[in-house]
From TrEMBL:
GO BP annotations listed: carbohydrate metabolic process
Keyword Isomerase: yes
Residues that bind D-ribulose 5-phosphate: 8-9, 66-70, 99, 109, 132, 136
Entry's family note: Belongs to the LacAB/RpiB family.
Claim: Flavoprotein is one of the keywords in the record: no
Keywords assigned by UniProt, alphabetized: Isomerase
MF (Gene Ontology): intramolecular oxidoreductase activity, interconverting aldoses and ketoses
Pfam families according to UniProt: LacAB_rpiB (PF02502)
UniProt-recorded name of the protein: Ribose 5-phosphate isomerase B
Gene3D superfamilies, alphabetized: Sugar-phosphate isomerase, RpiB/LacA/LacB
Amino acid sequence: MKIAIGGDHVGQELKPTIVEYLKKLGHEVKDFGTDSTERTDYPKYGETVAKEVASGNFDLGILICGTGVGISISANKVRGIRAVVCSEPYSAKLSKEHNNTNILAFGSRVVGPELAKMIVKEWLDAEFEGGRHARRVGMISDIEDKNDR
Ligand code: RB5
């Protein structure tokens, strides 16, 4: 799969490990920064990766900041994005199966590298189940239409 990844300076403590892991799993990865631990602003990276995924340039996105919260909120402002912030694998898996999430976010201050890899693997391996879940995901898209986003 083609995966876009990004994060702020706090996320950068974990991002290189995740990039390496994704490559090891055989995915094509593009890192949209930041590339240092110098202070920066998470919304920039959330928006960039979200646009890459929403436009279809990439299949999925992964975002990392201190908690995963700010960067996932930012990504969710882009039409068509369903970003989930997760600190355990169960919600990551279900977020794909039921909510068809297209961006996974987590926090480098919340999860360690091994747990982060487990979360990533569960999320990537999971598949959207469709059916009744598709109707509900459609209802989420309707909210975007109704609110002109
Ligand atoms: C940066 O200090 C921190 O606020 C950011 O990484 C993230 O946790 C925001 O949600």
